[in-house]
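User: Okay, second chain of the day. Same drill as before: sequence in, structure tokens out.
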Amino acid sequence: MSALFLSTSVLELPLVHPFTIARGSEVSARTVLFRLSWNGLEGLGETAPIARYNESAESVTAYFAEHAPRGDDPYLLDDLLSEDIPAAARCGLDVALHDLIGKDCGKPLYRLLGLNPAETPLTSFTVGIGDPETTLRKVAELGSHPVMKVKLGAGSRTSQIETIESIRSKYSGTIRIDANEGWSAEEAAAILGELERFEIEFCEQPIPAGHPEQLRYVRERSAIPIVTDEDSRTAEDLPALIGCVDGINVKLVKTGGIRGALKMIHAARAMKFKIMIGCMVESQILATAAAQLSPLADWADIDGPFLTKDDPFAGITYERGKIVLPDGPGLGVREKTVA
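Assistant: Same drill. Structure tokens below.
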């Protein structure tokens, strides 16, 4: 058996439009590309570190500059993916290992996980915070896409309500909203009360993380279901949220990869939470890895490939908003050829 050899590099992903949420704006995303070689095969992985959790592309590459994989058998996942590895770093290695195992077996990852690719959900397309003209232009670009997620949490209460009102006047599909911790509990209850008339499917992370009793306060006063993101990083966070929220957002980079995401999904089902599989702004590698788990979810927000331009990889596609998984071995992601 040959040794596992890992290389990492920073992947720069320019965006189609500047992307703004309550915490700030970006015009490009920086992720880390993983290439894991073994027995003549190459597993592709990616991680999209989250600055809010003090992780960055530099911290991930620095970690692996000092720490080689902890073994040479890609099937020994418990040994290779110890939880003392930082979550963002572990995510990229986890994804590359699962891609490598699938390629070694000659099977798509969803088949190795026992999942039906016909059961993938519709995914939302995210519209960042912007002025009314820019927002409506982005809405028009969506065309007939059936699900939209709108970023809120910044600006006046009136302007945020007017944003949804203007979108609803042009868009008849499903609308979700995400405040990215931008409101107080009292503001959230008040704003959600005014937004009920626009048929909002759910509100994601209305208040700063770490205050489940305040989430309970919002939920008890809102007809719009409440979903967490920043409050639900791993399975261990979920017990504190029982009775406080309706659902959780599972992201591979928060959970440390596919194994952590599966643990979180099964824990969430036991606790009667609904589940969304989400993503960061990322390439097709990480988005396709997340999509492999989407048959287990109620909702999906896997729209990284919508937001970036010149993605060097091809993976999932969409059919009227429904995620279509590639049928190649492992993740099924392929590298685009340069003309």
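The first strand starts at residue 5 and ends at 21.

User: Thanks, on to the next one.
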